[in-house]
Amino acid sequence: MATTPEQQAPAGFRAKFAEKSGALSNAKYRRYWLGSLASVGAIQIVTMAQGWLIVDKLGGSTTDIGILGGATAVPTILVSLFGGVFADRVDRRKLIMVVSIASTALLLLLAILDATNVILIWHVVLIAAVQGLVMGFDGPVRSSYFPLLIERKHMSSAVMLGTVMWQFSRLVTPIIGGILITVGGTQTVFFVGVLGWASMLLVMISLRVSSPPVVKSRNVLGDIVEGVKFILSRRDFVLLIGLTYSTHFFGMQYLQLMPFFAKRFEREADGFGIMLSVLGLGALAGTFTVGKVRASSRVGYFMLGGTLTFTAAVVAFAFAPSFYVALSCLFVGGLANTIFFVIAMTALQLRVPEQMRGRVMGIYTITFSFIPLGGVMGGYVASVYDERIAVAIGAAILASIFIAIGISQPIIRNLNGSNLEDA
Question: For residue 113, which of 213, 258, 400, 417 sits 20 to 30 Å off, Cα-Cα?
């Protein structure tokens, strides 16, 4: 049997390599992480291109962007509960393969429609809605699969690496997407997305780690109810998941409205890409920053302070007098917001029982659908006023929620980084 270089090295070196590399010391996790990076990059770059396609090529309005967000979010939210149950019941590896095949096919269809110039706004919305159904399975199964590849002591490392993956793709893919749109049009981006999901499929075919069999003792609805009851029985889970939902719905509306900010600053697709990339750069910096404070006994205060800093940066971005001031605000916002997400996700992953992981993570990953769903609210407010007012209102609501929770809930503000596993 072939061995990896670290397996061939002396035992002392392997131990030191594992300690410094964390979850990346596991060859299977490394492979999974790289495949996930390709598919996550596909998600990021396609989302960017869909918005630009509607606004620039098809002449869509803020309302159309809001509809696109709703079409993506609502199916994902509805399916995520069942996706979590499936993640606890079936072979998670095979489920990821099915998701990868479906996503590849949908993006190929979108690319062909765009390349042949028959694309209409309703085509984009419909394909996004079907993709939303698929993503309802993707989030829960991803979140519950990667713990099978690592030792428990590497959980925090794996959560951080997952965040790095998302943030790195947010840094790189918008620049690539902006260039591709400028040179070859949005259809080129969609074809690149096809390659990203196909890469994930090939990685999952090569992996041989499957989820353990489970006893199917009750029906699907019963499993969902059990997962909801478990969360409701734990105040820490209710608060951490609720705060995450609020952050995505109220605080991230500027992502959906970003094409209009690019137009406000008289920038084209390349400028749009630069804005998203600077946001990703800030988030990547935030990932490394939280690595230095995550063991602090006052990590709860860092988490709350990070979100309050984020909301201030978002308001400053909305009313920035120039493109470059806006970029600096995006960097600070991305950095501060990441502190909350890494700490909250690590606490949840360490505290959830393995037999409940799929269902709890299914409910948790609904949060990512709150970004486009918040875009529906943002799009409506922007249509009445403008995008700056919409973003500022969302940020102000989010800040109020975090201040109220920080004052009234010691279980959150007193989170201790040295024992996040403890309730």
Answer: 258
Residue 198 lies in a domain: yes
Residue 13 within a domain: no
Separation of alpha carbons 121 and 204, rounded Å: 33
Do 153 and 15 meet the contact criterion of CB atoms below 8 Å apart? no
For the chain, the residue count is: 423
State the total domains in the chain. 1
For residue 404, what are the contacts with CB-CB under 8 A and spacing of at least 6? none
pTM here is 0.71
CATH number, domain of 184, equals 1.20.1250.20
Q: Which residue has the tokens 């590497």?
A: 154
- Cβ distance 99 to 136 under 8 Å? no
Q: Which residues, at least 6 apart from 357, have a Cβ–Cβ distance to it below 8 Å?
A: 87, 88, 143, 144, 147
Host domain of residue 70: 25-419
Answer whether residue 7 shows pLDDT above 50: no
How many other β-carbons are positioned within 10 Å of the β-carbon of residue 323? 16
